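Now for one specimen:
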Amino acid sequence: LDCMLTELPNSITQMLQLEQLDLSDNNITLTEDSRQRLAGMTRMEELNLDGNPLGLTPDVSAMNHLLNLSLQQTGISQWPIGAERLTQLHSLLLQENQITTIPESLFTNAAMRTANRGTILHDNPLNAATLQRLTEYRLRTNTVMGGAMPGALHVPPAPTDFNAWLEGVPTRDHAQRKTVWEQLKNHEGASPDDVFRVLRYLT
């Protein structure tokens, strides 16, 4: 909810019984003080801070009722503090940030398996070792953590992508394929780059 906020108001963090908070798409940055105040909102069940340049990673270690945490496009480079121990989480959305590593406990604590299924990490610069650990975890537990393409970064569609999509397609069907391709490129809904990225992985 865009309220043109640049900081986390005291009036909100004083509402310690608050269970849902959506402050997405503002310009909020966290200080040590405001991070501590936010951490004290221990009744929180849903927290959405998408699209804010937070600076500091939120501390959710005491939010034992938290079910849904969304920190997309917040610029954070570290895992949300304590989130690796919140076994009750339904969703943890961390897309389009600067996270490079994942806490080791997420790979070893079986109680986190359900929460891991709801963790999405695409468009983070995950390092090679972390990507390898994700693959090993999926093979060992049959649990997909991080989403279908964790770590993959947005790549604009290239002309060669379209050519690859035509391989094996009869010439008479090329025009129809090109029409669909252009419609996807110009779609105003979900990011069309994501569609092309999926196609790139499939071809």
Notes: The longest strand covers residues 20-22. The CA atoms of residues 8 and 33 lie 10 Å apart.
